[in-house]
Structure to design on (871 residues):
């Protein structure tokens, strides 16, 4: 199945940019340098080794936390708990049952990941705060168990296994445990940077910053959160497995303070960066050894330095370095501004129908839609929808809506009449108190927003939901999520896989083309935080259209656009209609909306007062009174 | 032409975010009692001009003068104390607070002068009687047009020299747009000075005495509504798309 799909990429895969090539060779050089460093560490004295290796193990822990905290905004205080699972499993099995520790590695991985899934599944559905508390309690409970259980030998702890020696032929390499630890850290780094350079990265950030947007793009956000947390837990477990070889394993090494220290590491080093967590780990672990003073004073100094670092450089060491390099290149802001396509949106309109490679069609957009008998088919139907927020008055009272395939269906009404609420109910964000919704003839009441997106229903938001620190085109990539098979599976090795490079180029081309077509071609590489309101709307539109959906809900798409831009938008929407796409549009600019619509439903105070053609709506006295006011 | 005083004067203003100057070399003035519109395509820098006047975006070069005061180096909270006031895009009310609470917040710096706050409140209610009717109601229960009136009223509560409005007609039902336009015309009649960013040329033309067209961060042209009436909307549209 996948083979067939990937073949279609090849035809239009872009030639790899020289920059990517240069980046890759720089990566190889860095890995080689790292291995040389490892060689020297393995040869060095025991004191130096223990310092470096403990820092490396904590580096793995910090990276594991950064995966969830940096990319998903989930501040886990359970890393010390997973760390303990790895270390105790290894130490107990080796001490009491004399199991070869290497057989234990997969066991540790699985047990830690399962614990992660369990904790994630119970706490992540609620909110970030519950997650932090649950993980904190998890660590606390494990420390108590480790202190009280017989098998863990209480506060005294137990001795971990010794690491087997290298065979004679490899003895020149030095201490084997050093190699294992350093290579494990390297793998963790590669994993994190692999994810960061893959198209999964914008998807993860969209879960962190704009979850409704991610869900509307078909992303199963809960499953991904739990999955990434399980990965993070497994990494912390491996760190524990390595740590067991360092000597005694006792409860004090895994208490909640350790979890907090790991958090300090990523904050000091730079959250959501690849190398930052390692820098933070080096600082935190080596500080007591290097600054060898009165322990009381040392603690105070460490605390003060951490607070200072976090308050003065909130983006951490890596963020600070980035800011400094940026400042240097900022010497001539004017020239930069002039050289960039800067002003009005415009650009060549590339029709959406230009379909380079249909990877996964979200649905079979029937070609004959819009003509003939298929015209009569109802594609979205709401019946008897009742909804209210909390104890307040009902926002929707017994609303019926039937949208025919291939139609543009306008939804108008005074502010507060329930238009956006109805859109949210159709898209699955809100559950009605009564009534049913059917999409493409399927009763959709039990379907989540992402489930409905996978049915081919996409939507935009009135207040644009986008990741502000990503570029517009990276945001559009989120919209393409469902069209790339095996994205999650391949994410960690994305830039190493030929298929990843091919798909990456295809995705980029798609995103750029979609932005061009939406009329935001001049803003492709700009961060969303720097673009005006109207361009946010166009970015949303591009991220929706790029998925080639059958049904699109647009919530006030013309907001913030100038008259010519609105005209351009109307042309885009007509083009979509010509391709058989069904649209539900909420909009106040009737001059733009009315000529587009086949049918218009007028809502007032939560009730449908009329569904008819534009002319009849315009002529209706009640509509004139409550809405048009002419 | 004689006794006019300038309430807002921008002289070669540069402002922007990150590495980019979004606003470049902008000169602009608003006289006492005048309504001026700033039109232009998306990303031309209109909103940034308003934000720079309020001190919300740090200006990089140039002078911003409100009345006699040079506000270029003042922090936003000082500018908001009776110099300039803004009704931002999307209105940004405190939706869980009552109408009156939102209004009184505009006069936060006058809170010790109870009499003055009361007078200001009375004048706002005089301008928008509907707000007096709803004064205890939560702002989230108001219609969009009424919310925009609260946002305008909140500006008036700080008794500013100049009112800055960012797309007041945005995302409003046609009836509500009409109500907001009427309110702004009434404000103008009462002698307020307005600087308005608008996408809807028809709205701007009805309210304003002068129009500035901005493109690429610069003022491209200045004209009067008469010119637009004579030459047609095309004269502006060619800058916008």
């Amino acid at each position: 199945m996948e083979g067939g799909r990937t073949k279609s990429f090849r035809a239009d895969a872009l030639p790899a940019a020289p920059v990517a090539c240069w980046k890759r060779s720089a990566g190889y050089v860095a890995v080689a340098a790292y291995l040389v460093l490892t060689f020297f560490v393995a040869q060095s004295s025991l004191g130096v080794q223990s310092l470096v290796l403990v820092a490396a193990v904590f580096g793995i822990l910090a990276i594991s936390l950064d995966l969830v905290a940096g990319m998903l905004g989930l501040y886990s205080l359970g890393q010390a708990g997973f760390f303990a699972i790895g270390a105790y499993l290894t130490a107990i099995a080796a001490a009491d049952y004399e199991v070869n520790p290497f057989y234990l590695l997969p066991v540790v991985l699985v047990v830690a990941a399962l614990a992660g899934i369990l904790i994630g599944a119970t706490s992540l559905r609620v909110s970030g705060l519950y997650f932090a508390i649950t993980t904190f309690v998890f660590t606390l409970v494990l420390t108590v168990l480790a202190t009280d259980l017989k098998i863990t030998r209480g506060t005294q702890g137990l001795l971990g296994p010794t690491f087997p020696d290298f065979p004679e032929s490899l003895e020149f390499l030095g201490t084997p445990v050093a190699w294992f630890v350093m290579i494990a850290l390297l793998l963790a780094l590669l994993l994190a940077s692999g994810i960061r350079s893959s198209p999964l990265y914008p998807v993860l950030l969209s879960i962190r910053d704009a979850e409704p947007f991610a869900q509307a793009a078909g992303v199963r956000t809960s499953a991904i959160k739990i999955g990434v947390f399980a990965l993070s837990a497994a990494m912390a477990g491996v760190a524990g497995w390595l740590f067991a070889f360092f000597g005694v394993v006792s409860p004090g090494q895994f208490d909640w303070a350790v979890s907090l220290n790991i958090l300090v590491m990523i904050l000091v080093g730079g959250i959501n960066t690849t190398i930052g967590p390692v820098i933070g780990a080096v600082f935190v672990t080596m500080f007591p050894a290097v600054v060898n003073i009165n322990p009381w004073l040392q603690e105070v100094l460490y605390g003060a330095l951490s607070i200072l670092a976090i308050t003065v450089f909130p983006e951490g060491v890596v963020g600070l370095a980035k800011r400094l390099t940026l400042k240097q290149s900022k010497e001539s802001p004017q020239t930069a501004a002039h050289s960039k396509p800067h002003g009005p949106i415009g650009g060549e309109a590339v029709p959406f129908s230009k379909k380079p490679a249909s990877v996964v069609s979200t649905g079979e957009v029937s070609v004959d839609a819009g003509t003939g008998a298929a015209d009569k088919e109802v594609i979205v139907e709401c019946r008897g929808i009742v909804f209210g927020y909390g104890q307040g008055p009902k926002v929707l009272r017994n609303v019926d809506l039937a949208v025919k395939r291939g139609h543009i269906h306008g939804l108008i009404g005074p502010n507060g009449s329930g238009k956006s609420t109805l859109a949210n109910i159709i898209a699955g964000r809100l559950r009605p108190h009564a009534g049913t919704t059917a999409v493409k003839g399927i009763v959709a009441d039990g379907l989540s927003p992402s489930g409905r997106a996978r049915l081919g229903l996409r939507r935009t938001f009135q207040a644009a939901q986008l990741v502000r620190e990503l570029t517009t085109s990276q945001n559009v990539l989120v919209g393409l999520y469902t069209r790339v098979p095996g994205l999650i599976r391949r994410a960690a090795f994305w830039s190493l896989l030929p298929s990843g490079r091919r798909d990456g180029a295809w995705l980029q081309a798609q995103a750029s083309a979609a932005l061009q077509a939406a009329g935001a071609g001049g803003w492709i590489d700009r961060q969303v935080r720097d673009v005006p309101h109207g361009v946010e709307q166009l970015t949303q539109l591009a991220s929706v259209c790029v998925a080639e959906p059958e049904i699109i809900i647009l919530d006030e798409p013309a907001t913030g656009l100038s008259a010519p831009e609105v005209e351009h938008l109307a042309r885009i929407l007509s083009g979509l209609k010509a391709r058989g796409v069904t649209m539900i549009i909420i909009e106040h600019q009737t001059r733009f909306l009315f000529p587009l619509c086949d049918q218009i439903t007028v809502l007032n105070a939560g009730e449908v007062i009329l569904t008819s053609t534009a002319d009849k709506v315009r002529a209706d006295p009640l509509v004139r009174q409550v809405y048009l006011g002419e | 032409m004689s006794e006019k005083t300038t309430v807002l004067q921008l002289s070669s203003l540069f402002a922007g975010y990150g590495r980019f100057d979004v606003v470049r070399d902008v000169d602009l003035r608003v006289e006492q009692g005048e309504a001026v519109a700033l039109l232009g395509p998306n990303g031309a820098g209109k909103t940034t001009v308003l934000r720079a006047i309020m001190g919300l975006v740090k200006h990089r070069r140039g002078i911003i003068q409100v009345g006699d005061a040079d506000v270029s180096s003042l922090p936003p909270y000082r500018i908001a104390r009776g110099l300039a006031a803004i009704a931002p895009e999307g209105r940004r009310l405190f939706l869980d607070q009552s109408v009156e609470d939102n209004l009184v917040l505009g006069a936060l710096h006058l809170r010790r002068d109870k009499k003055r706050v009361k007078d200001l409140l009375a004048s706002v209610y005089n301008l928008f009687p509907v707000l007096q009717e709803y004064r205890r109601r939560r702002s989230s229960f108001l219609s969009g047009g009424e919310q925009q009136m609260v946002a305008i009223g909140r500006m008036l509560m700080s008794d500013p020299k100049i009112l800055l409005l960012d797309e007041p007609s945005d995302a409003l039902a046609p009836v509500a747009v009409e109500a907001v336009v009427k309110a702004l015309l009434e404000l103008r009649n009462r002698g307020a000075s307005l600087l308005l960013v608008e996408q809807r040329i028809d709205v701007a033309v009805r309210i304003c005495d002068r129009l500035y067209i901005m493109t690429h961060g610069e003022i491209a042209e200045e004209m009067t509504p008469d010119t637009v009436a004579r030459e047609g909307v095309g004269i502006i549209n060619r800058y916008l798309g």
User: Anything to note?
Assistant: The two ends of chain B are 35 Å apart (CA to CA). The longest strand of chain B covers residues 6-17. The longest helix of chain B spans residues 174-189.
